[in-house]
Design a protein that fits this description.
Elements: E1 2-4, E2 14-16, E3 20-23, H1 27-36, E4 51-54, E5 59-60, E6 65-67, E7 75-76, E8 79-85, E9 89-90, E10 101-108, E11 111-112, H2 113-122, E12 134-141, E13 150-151, E14 154-155, E15 158-163, E16 166-172, H3 180-187, E17 192-193, E18 198-200, H4 209-216, E19 229-234, E20 238-245
Helix pairs in contact: 1-4
């Protein structure tokens, strides 16, 4: 399965992605990152799901090389699951929104942490720290194929990340605080969602080097370097593998 940018020609076994909304829906990841900076959880996080827009023109496929963005020395992966919209809608109800999903895939929301840090200090959100690569794949699994693993607000699917064969991250999609229905409904408020729109879950607990290094130290979990092979695996969804280029 290939996920193509908006200006791509239609192709067999491919989905044209018109927008990428990446949410922040795993409480463990948010709480750990904030606690390491001496910050408490903000109550607003529990009031509504929040997201930022990523660049659909920066999509990367399975087994593609991901180039380190200019000026970056702190490259990170982020272990996520993405839902892909299959049916258009507007002002959706959270209880009905999941019926608009075509399926689920793995997402790597690559991050240039040293580029992202000054951007976040301004308070507007990530920009060039993210605007270089988002991996999706290797397949799209329909919700019906996961129905027997329904748990919590999502599915009981183990999520792992490996760098050069060493396991770094382990989480579970069932730990989502916000369901994909709630995320999609929020995304559709006052606007339309279209087939091919991507809804990212946000990073699962332990699901990036930044979080791991804050807890265990940078020596234990160094930033990615050219030649590193990053594998994100989610039960039933497969393995999304990319190599870091120069």
């Amino acid at each position: 399965m290939r996920f193509l940018p908006p200006d791509a020609d239609e192709a067999p076994d491919a989905i044209v992605v018109h927008s990428v909304r990446d949410f922040y829906a795993f409480e463990e990841h948010v709480a750990t990152a904030r606690r390491a900076r001496g910050l408490d959880m903000v109550p607003e996080w529990y009031e509504q799901p929040v997201f930022y827009f990523s660049n659909p023109h920066a999509l990367v496929g399975p087994d593609d090389v991901v180039a380190v963005p200019p000026g970056c020395t702190e490259l990170d992966y982020e272990l996520e699951v993405a839902a892909v919209v299959g049916t258009a809608g507007r002002d959706l109800d959270p209880d009905d929104a999941e019926a608009h999903l075509a399926g689920f895939t793995i997402m790597n929301d690559w991050s240039a942490r040293d580029l992202q840090r000054p951007e976040m200090a301004v308070g507007l959100g990530p920009a060039k720290g993210k605007d270089f690569a988002t991996s999706l794949g290797p397949t799209l699994v329909p919700p019906a194929a996961l129905a027997d693993r329904r748990a919590g607000k999502a599915y009981d699917l183990v999520m792992t990340a490996r760098v050069n064969g060493r396991e770094y991250s382990r989480g579970n999609l069932a730990d989502l605080h916000w369901s994909f229905g709630e995320m999609l409904a929020h995304a559709s408020r006052g606007t339309a969602v279209r087939p091919g729109d991507v809804i990212g879950s946000g990073t699962c607990g332990t699901g990036c080097i930044l979080e791991l290094s804050l807890v265990h130290g940078a020596d234990a979990y160094p930033w990615l370097r050219p030649g590193d092979v990053v594998e994100l695996e989610v039960e039933r969804l497969g393995v999304l593998r990319n190599t870091v280029g120069s």
